[in-house]
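Many introductory courses stop at the sequence. We go one step further.
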Amino acid sequence: MKSKLLVFVLTAILFNCTNPNTTLYVGTYTNGESEGIYQFEFNSETGALTNKQLATSSENPSFITYSPDKNYLYAVNENENGSVSAFKVEDDKTLTFINKVSTKGAHPCHVAINEQGDKAVVSNYTGGNFSLHNIKNDGALNEAFQVLNHKTDSIASHAHSAQFFKDDLLVSDLGRNAVFNYRLANNNYKLITPSIVKLEDSSGPRHFSLTKDGKFIYIINELSSTITSAKKTENGFEFIETLSTLDDDFKGKSYCADIHLSKDEQFLYGSNRGENSMVVFKRDTTSGKLTKIQNMSVHGDWPRNFAIDPSGKFLLVANQKSNNISVFKVNTQTGFLSFLNEVPLPTPVCLLF
């Protein structure tokens, strides 16, 4: 009996060590053929996306994210009456609905979870505000305990993304053209500064990436098609540079979408809607400065969110208007991308490993 148990355990360990498949979830817009959040199996050796199925029905789950332990998944419902939904990740990777709460604003477009897994922040694009929610032990969301509102009489706020970093909360407001910094105090978030770094007029900050140690931030600006870099100091952030995300020869209209660092933080990637490209930068890890090294066609139209797979060897792009997901091989030494394959899917906008 003991020998059989030992064989079973060893077999399970061997399978987990050698199994190259991981689950990819895809958030979509459901005003067409899509029905909600989809799941695929992704092979981190071949780059193949297979076994597509509907993980759960949901209305306009345009941005999705995990809890830190990946036992739960959270999705915005990007509607006029904004809401955010919680799901349990089952053993077969399908999603079971837990609950849904109001985001206190219209058209939520981003949700993030803190590292403890007990708080969520949702960005309401049209509502122009950010709602903060406590998360219960069973993954369920509580109603908002705080709403951060940036609207003024003269400037329209367009909340676009937010991230927790320790006790800080950084929020990107495209309408106010700034990244705000809040800090947790007495169970509420207090404003530290309404702009961590000066951005050029009409830049439109959309998303941003922080290095793991929090020393550098890279802000992708939707309206100006640029990336602004800054370094953390004792008194906040210090501006480094702003660089174009577009090829020097491109003269058309384009709007940035998503931004991510490579696993080793040696490279930075961004998506361009219009040029329909991925931009690749080499990163100086000491100074934080960037050097543009590639603009690669996404083999699709209107690239939104993209994701790097857990192995760091592949990058996948959600092309909203052409209804496909493009898979690229990443040269981990040079950062360069090469196109591998694509799969069809209605209005993909967010990818999650």
